[in-house]
Amino acid sequence: DYIINGEKSSGKKFIAGVFSQALQCERGTEEPCGECHSCKQAASKNHPDIRYVTHEKPASIGVDDIRVQISDDVSIKPYSGPYKIYIVSEAEKMTAQAQNAILKTLEEPPEYVVIMLLTTNSGSFLQTIKSRCIELDMKPVPSEVLKEYLMREFEIPDYKADVCVAFAQGNVGKAREMAISDDFTAVQNATLNLVKSVREMDLAD
């Protein structure tokens, strides 16, 4: 089982999705082939053995959320893949009762179960949970890699990619949002105009 720790928009869901896809891939390779039926189901988030845990209360994940979606479900074997994977986003929102409920599954999980806890704060977990999971920390993406990705994926010019990368500080999600945001482009243009004319402006302006 895994804890994927990183700031908001750092790519935790993306990593969990690709990892899940690879685990379920019918070709059994280290990376998902992207072509088999399992990979296509995973990519569209329709794979029956990859479960995304939801919660009704926006500020917390309660014990009933964990019991119904994980604890009471793990005994049912996978439908089609070799694993049954549970992905818990915003896992730092689990209440103490919810953490204790998931701990019971972590202590004696069926061999086919994989649980991924995605969080912005792994320090919020019980030490007993952390001791039973492999913790992965999301690292900032190097600027040159991020810039190349933005220019290729969103077909934005070189100078705009540079600005997005500078603001994002290695955070892929933030860089994506800036690349496609009309508001960010407007603020960027306004800032450039301000810098160009600042010498001619008085203090009030």
Cα(first) to Cα(last) distance is 56 Å
Shape: elongated
List the strand order in the largest sheet. Answer: 2-3-4-1-5
Unreliable segments (pLDDT under 50, ≥5 consecutive)? none
The helix fraction, in percent, is: 40-55%
Number of strands: 5
N to C succession of SSEs: EHHEHEHEHEHHHH
Overall mean pLDDT score? 90
Kindly estimate the percentage of residues that lie in beta strands according to DSSP.
5-15%
Total of helices:
9
The secondary-structure class comes to alpha/beta
Radius of gyration: 21 Å
Taking the sheet with the most strands, its summary is: 5 strands, parallel
What does this structure look like?
By secondary structure, the protein is α/β, with parallel strands linked by helices. The protein is 45% helix and 12% strand. It has helices at residues 12-24, 37-43, 63-71, 96-107, 127-130, 143-154, 158-168, 172-180, 182-197; strands at 2-5, 50-53, 84-88, 113-119, 134-137. Strands 2-3-4-1-5 form a 5-stranded parallel beta sheet, with helices on both faces. Strand 2 (50-53), helix 3 (63-71) and strand 3 (84-88) form a beta-alpha-beta unit. Helix 6 packs across helix 7. The longest helix is centred in the last third of the chain and has 16 residues, at 182-197. The chain starts with a strand and ends in an 8-residue tail after the last helix. The model has no long low-confidence stretch (mean pLDDT 90).
